[in-house]
Design brief:
The chain has 13 helices and five strands. By secondary structure, the protein is mainly α.
């Protein structure tokens, strides 16, 4: 039976799937989400209760009615679940729960071939509705998501669970898009761990390779030794062979430096592409009248914060990593959601 929006699979069906993926209570120190209950992390729960004028409480004591409100207000409304087409709605929602709505919306936008600014504006929505093959669109979204997951340091711990989750979400989403039910969810360990950009793999520095290629430390050292030996050239075959070996070593070091620098730049470019960390000026044409401050802040230093929904790792977050703890203030705190023009428009509609 179709819901109020004409969907065979609506919000209640989506929540049943999401909660199966998220499981119950979890407090894995390797999980950037930290202390979590049914997919809701402590930080999100604390912020939600504060907005409601309620005292702080352990997320393990969260009530189901609170959970349902948090999911709808924090994820369902932000990805405009009820307005997205069947199947795509589940895929974008699940990505939002696991990695933040803004990140999930970027995967949708990249799959559509438009600028990925993480804001689901009216034309992004229209492009999604008009897309000729939602089954194919879902496949593209999951491909973007998988690339992102593989670019996280925590992939070595949680990758098997994450990829199982995205594979199952793709199959269920494509089934919904075609008007069928899809397969039953199979639980895999760690599929519920948060996958946020705060745990992105670091960029590699090209400085050592550039220095070598330009005659840096290695080649300079070789040249110094060679300079000492040059006056003795021709005096013995051993010295001559040694000078020749040093010349060859210098050439090899320079070639290695050039090759390594090329590989590092290629690897960093692939990392930036997978993580959607291009500077805001390079995002490209998009449909939104303006990019909210909240999204702009995300581009300043991706390692200083998690997603714009609060899925940030516990502890003090800096460019060099994070430490344990739950009491610190968020770095680059976003503006209140009700002050963002796009969300005002959505709420008014």
């Amino acid at each position: 039976m179709a819901d109020a929006y004409g969907k065979d699979h609506g919000w209640s069906d989506a929540m049943k799937h999401i909660l199966k993926f998220e499981g119950g209570k979890d407090d894995d120190p390797r999980d950037p989400g930290g202390r979590t209950n049914q997919g809701v992390i402590q930080r999100v729960y604390t912020a939600w209760r504060k907005r409601k004028g309620l005292p702080n409480r352990d997320v393990f004591l969260m009530e189901n009615t609170e959970r349902d409100q948090i999911y709808w207000e924090g994820y369902g409304q932000k990805v405009r679940f009820n307005e997205l087409p069947p199947g795509v709605d589940l895929v974008v929602l699940d990505g939002g729960v696991n990695s933040g709505p803004g990140q999930s919306i970027k995967w949708l936008q990249r799959a559509l071939g438009i600028g990925a600014d993480g804001v689901l504006g009216d034309l992004t929505l229209q492009r999604t509705l008009d897309y000729p093959d939602h089954d194919d669109l879902i496949r593209k979204i999951i491909t973007q998501r998988d690339n992102f997951l593989r670019a996280l340091k925590t992939f070595k711990h949680f990758g098997r669970g994450w990829i199982s989750r995205t594979s199952q979400v793709r199959k269920i989403g494509q089934a919904w898009a075609m008007g069928t039910v899809g397969p039953e969810i199979v639980w895999v360990s760690n599929m519920n761990k948060k996958a946020t950009i705060v745990d992105a793999k670091p960029r590699l520095s090209t400085a050592p390779a550039d220095a070598t290629a330009a005659g840096g430390t290695v080649t300079t050292g070789i040249s110094t030794v060679q300079g000492v030996l040059d006056p003795m050239q021709g005096m013995s075959s051993t010295v001559d062979h040694l000078i020749t070996a040093l010349i060859v070593a210098g050439v090899i070091a320079t070639i290695f430096g050039i090759g390594y620098a090329w590989w590092v730049r290629k690897r960093n470019a692939e990392l930036e592409d997978a993580l959607d960390t291009a500077p805001i000026s390079q995002v490209g044409a998009n449909d939104n009248d303006e990019i909210p401050l909240e999204v702009k802040l995300e581009y300043k230093d991706q390692t200083q914060r998690g997603s714009e929904t609060g899925n940030m790792a516990p502890g003090t977050v800096t460019t060099s990593g994070r430490t344990e703890g739950d009491g610190e203030e968020r770095v680059n705190a976003p503006v209140p959601l009700d002050q963002i023009p796009e969300i005002k428009k959505q709420d008014a509609a």
